[in-house]
C-alpha cells in the first residue's frame, strides 16, 4: 500500500478552505489525507463515519488513480456538510461558507 500522505494523485476538484486566516488549497490525495488526519479528532467527532470513509477512499486512491472520483466525492461530502462547517467554526479551526448540496464546479470554494 502506498503512503497516502505523500500521494501526488490529483483529486477531481480543488478544495479551498480558510484555516486560521489562511487559504489552504487541497488538490491531491496526499493534501486531503494530511488535512483530514492532522486536525485533532475533536473536529471530526460528529462526522466519524464520513471522516473514516474519506480516509479509506484516499488511501485506496493513493494506490489506484481510478479511485480518485469516489475519493473526491467522499472528501466533498465531508466538507460540504453545513453542520460540519459549523463544528469546525465552534472549535476555531476553520471558517468557511456553508453548502447544502454537492458542488458541481471545478473548484469547490469553501472560503
The total count of strands amounts to 4
- Give the end-to-end Cα distance, rounded to a whole number of Å: 33 Å
The count of helical stretches stands at 5
Mean pLDDT: 75
Order of secondary-structure elements: EEHHHHHEE
Shape: globular
**Helix amount, in percent?**
40-55%
Overall tally of structural domains: 1
Residue fraction in strands: 15-25%
Q: Could you name the ranges where pLDDT drops below 50 across 5 or more consecutive residues?
A: 82-111
- Radius of gyration, in Å, reads 13 Å
User: The biggest beta sheet, please?
Assistant: 4 strands, mixed
Q: What is the SS-derived class? A: alpha+beta
Protein traits:
disordered C terminus; four-stranded mixed sheet; 4 strands; 111 residues; single chain
